[in-house]
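[User]
If only I could read C-alpha cells as easily as an amino acid sequence. I have put the entry right below:
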Amino acid sequence: MVPRSAYLHVPFCRHRCGYCNFAVVAGRLDLARRYLAAIERELSWLETPRPVETLYFGGGTPTQLLPADFARLAECVLKWHPLLPGAEWTVEANPADINAEYLRLLVQLGVTRLSLGSQSFSAHKLKLLERDHAPEQIAWVVAEAQSLGLPVSLDLIFATPGETLAEWQVDLTAALALGPQHISTYELTFEKGTNFWSRRLRGELVGADEELQRAMYELAIDTLNSAGFEHYEVSNYALPGHRSRHNETYWMGNEYLAAGPGAARYLNGVRETNHRSTTTYLKRMLAGESPVAERDELSPEGRARECLVFGLRRLDGVSRHAFQEHTSFSLDELAGPKLREFVQLGLLTDDGECIKLTREGLMICDALGPALL
C-alpha cells in the first residue's frame, strides 16, 4: 500500500515545559536555517514526489518559526508531498506565537486544521505547567482562526497536581464555549528525564490519585459527548466530520512518511526513527549521512498485533473482516484466548463481527496492549 500520510517534525520551542519529553530544542531559533536545509535534503531523498491525503506539522512548535521561514518550509514540503484533492493539513501552534498575520499565512498556504496547545484556561494551571500563554490568548486565536474558516482542535491536560474535579469541569466548559471542532484530552504523565519527573522524586509535585484521574476522564467523556462531540479514540473527541484523519492513519495501522529530528516513519513493515537530538540530526543530515537512529523490522504477525492494539484505541473497534483483509491474519487465531478473557472481564465487547473497548476497558486500555503484543 502506498503511504498517503506524512509527518514533519519542527523541533523549536520558546521554552521546554516541565512535563515535556518530546524531541524539542528551546531558544535555538538560530538553528532554523540549518534545519530548513536539512529538511530540504532529507525530503529530496524521496527522489519522486509522494502525494498525501494528510499532512501534519508537529513539534515542538511549528509556529515558532518566523513567517518567512515557515513559508519556505511549507514550499519545500509541498513540493515533495503535494496535497491530494480534499487533503487535511494540520499545523500545531502555541497560542503565544500566533498573530493575525500568521493565521492569514497558514490559510493562504492551504492549512486546513489548527491544533492549538491550549492545555488549560486556568492562569494558575498554565503557570504550573510552565506554559507561556494566557487564557485570553487561546480565546483570541480560536476566534480569529474561525473567522478565517480555519477549523481548530484544542489540547487539554487534566490530573495536574492539586487540580480538583470542579476545576477540570471549568476547563471543559471554557473549551466548549469557544466552539472548536475537535478536542484532545490528556492525563498529565511524569516522564523520566523531564523536570517534572525530578520534582516529583523530590516531593515537590504530587500527581492526582487513580480515583480522581478516572473521575476526570469520565467527566470529559460525558461532558463532551453531551455537547455533541463524538468520542472516537481514547483521548480524542470531534464534531461530526472533524476527526483527525492523520492520526487515524496511525490507529488504523496504515503506513506513513516522516521527516525531521525525532520523526518516526512506518514503511513496508519497518519502523524507523530519526535522531531525537536536533543538533545530531542537523550534523548528520548536512554531512549527507542517514538521520536514522532506530530501525525495527516487524514480522507479519508483529504488524498484525500492532494493528490490533492501535485499532482497539478507536471507539469504532476492530472489525474481524477488515482486520483479516488488512493483515491477512484471523483475529481469533491471532489473539482469540486473550480477547475472550478481556470480554469475560468486561473490558471488551464482541458481537461476532466487531471487538470494542467497554467504558471499563477505556479506563485501562494502555494496560491491555502489552498482553496483546
About this structure: The mean pLDDT is 94. The two ends are 23 Å apart (CA to CA).
